Structure of Response regulator receiver and ANTAR domain protein:
Amino acid sequence: MKPLKILIADDEALLRLDLREMLEEAGHTVISEAENGKIAVSLAEKYRPDLVIMDVKMPEMDGLEAAKLIGEAKLAPVLLLTAYSQQEIVQEATNSGVFAYLVKPVREEELFPAIEIAISRFAAFQRLNAALDKAKDDLETRKLLDRAKGILMDQYKFTEKDAFQAMQKLSMDRRLSLKAVAKAVIASAEIHEKETGKKKSRK
């Protein structure tokens, strides 16, 4: 495992010290420590760590709420520490965007496999999100292209193929994406439509 930049969040100073020693002996860097969830979220936003190791029970904001905020912002994977192994805690942790958890007391032989699990699950989650974002963008682009082609076909009596080729040429000439060209065609048509409407209303 490559060296990681890690944020530790726990209200017990002794536990933070033990974790820091284990992590630093393994070659990782503890970039900061937090004594409650609210500070942990703020530090995660500031430092963008590779991993957050966080306790469940903390003052001001607990680990589950903090993990949810960190997960929603896609700041880092969270490895949750808990004194409980009940199913409801595990389920709640999963729903909060926690990528792995450990039951206290933390043992070195369990800590590093859990870190690897959290890192690999977070990487898979990021890949899935990227694929979903691309799929959404592709769908939006297709819809814009279809609308822009329809405008060009109506205005210039192009065939669908001619309309697409005209946008492709404009895309290459102007060094713009097809999506940007389609948006420009649609915006131009909307402006023309408004101006035509104004002229008609004046008559």
Notes: Strands lie at 5-9, 29-34, 51-55, 78-82, 98-103. The chain has a mean pLDDT of 90.
